[in-house]
Amino acid sequence: MHDPRNDLHDSRNDLHHSRSDWLDDLAALTAGAVERFPRHNDAFHLVSRLAEESGELAQQVNHMEGMGRKREAHGEPDPDHLTKEVLDVVRCAVAIAAHYGCLANLRTLTSAKLDSYRREGWAR
Questions:
Q1: How far apart are CA 114 and CA 112, in angstroms?
Q2: Cα separation, 15 vs 23, whole angstroms
Q3: Are 44 and 99 in contact (CB under 8 A)?
Q4: Tell me: the pLDDT tens digits for 5-58?
Q5: Cβ neighbours of residue 62 under 8 Å, at least 6 residues apart?
Q6: Which residue has the higher pLDDT, 11 or 79?
């Protein structure tokens, strides 16, 4: 069974090198998706899409954790599938923030929360 605590240090290193770029990339990806699929981008559709993508992420987590008969039915889990679903969920959440014009607030809050975690010794 995969223990995500083993990946924590690597994840922190990944986040350190491009913290501000990541939200910019997600915002651009979100804007591109709205441009590519211009219909159904009102708040109701955005939150429905988030719920749907969250369900797909839950399925991948269940598969990774070997819940039920997932491995028997679908074989060994693929971390790339999990990664894709995580991105889809985050992209949908960023689309909601963009819809309501609060991407700058999200960036500010993220920095403030990270600073707080650093002061408390929970993050580097």
A1: 5
A2: 11
A3: no
A4: 444 444 444 545 455 588 899 999 999 999 998 998 999 999 999 999 999 999
A5: 68, 70
A6: 79
Q: How far apart are the first and last CA of the chain?
A: 27
* pTM to 2 decimal places: 0.80
- Please name which of 38, 58, 60, 53 lies closest in space to residue 94, comparing C-alpha atoms: 53
Burial class (CB in 10 A: 0-12, 13-18, 19+), 40: exposed
CA 103, 12, 47 angle in degrees (round to 5)? 35
85 and 57 in contact (C-beta within 8 Å)?
yes
92, 45 Cβ separation under 8 angstroms? no
